[in-house]
Sequence to fold (402 residues):
Amino acid sequence: MKRIELIAPCHFGLEAVLKREIYDLGYEVTRVEDGRVFFEGDEEAVCRANVRLRTAKRILWKVAEFDAGTYDELFEGTRAVPWEDYLPKNAKFWVTKAAAVKSRLYSPSDIQSIVKKAMVERMKSCYHASWFTEDGNAYPLRIFLYKDRVEMTLDTAGEALHRRGYRQLASKAPLTETLAAALLMLTPWNKDRILVDPFCGSGTFPIEAAMMAAKIAPGLRRSFQGQEWENLIDARLWRDVAEEAEEEIDRNVQTDIQGYDIDGEIIKAARENAKGAGVDHLIHFQRRAIAQMSHPKKYGFMIMNPPYGERLEDKASLGQLYRQIGEAYERLDSWSMYLITSYEDAVKNIGRQPDKNRKIYNGMIKTYFYQFLGPKPPRRRQQGTDPKGYAAGEQRTMKQRG
Fold:
């Protein structure tokens, strides 16, 4: 299999999380930019990245890179790309998105039109045809220009990777699955610890946490555009990757994950979404307000995406809501709390300073991920040890030697 360069876009501010995920899959990261991680792999890497990466928005296959400071140079550079190596004669192809940063070529519609024309000209000369039916499989392209540098990529995902296939119903302000997974990865939470989302909405945080605990690959229940490209990726690779992911699922895992919301209808939707993800048995959903939040156990985690007050009519009650968040946290002995919000008075109304905060873009909204860190739980003493950590047999031996 040939080596190819792949690009994984992600939320701004969360590049390090995605980079770690890619390393854990066994691939070499070659470059990190704002909102994008570059890595090398092969055709199998395309399949594994789509199926297994939790925090990537898409997986893009880079097919060309060249300089273009004028539209004529863009046309000639595009026409020089060996598109016949990627697109069969009847392929349906178009530029689904063109983005330009600090480039003299700033019109997305002009970029899309010129690239399409240049590709057609190349295809005409290679396939000896004057027109194309484009009634075959789809090959959507994404073009990115930075200054005079052009990157041309094939979108192997199709639908964005946050569409896991389980969320049929959503709340008014849903958090994307990829962002929720990334925020969970920024915490020290693991499957053996309590996790509560008191503003769970359609259940994204609890469901993503449960999938992580059970080792369920995020793309296991959906399809990808690249599955249609049998001229580029053997269908067997997609099957092998899916089988590998199925075998890794921990079907015996036990968790203490809870989701609360004041809207009873949205709690029903969250249960349905969890069922669609195959993790409904791992999550307890309940209608409950943040003012009623309490828990008898220690060393748990709260993670939440509370209202931001983007609508003017919501701002009046926002201060009281965040004060209730602070009061709820005060009642939880030795817990940690994590919340993402753009509300500027969040910290003031919570009533305490976070130990850490991180700037993250939720869509086009600049938010902060506030982190209030509780103490670590004490290490469990192994059976048969004394308070100093010696096993019973070792203790007797030491006494005999003494």
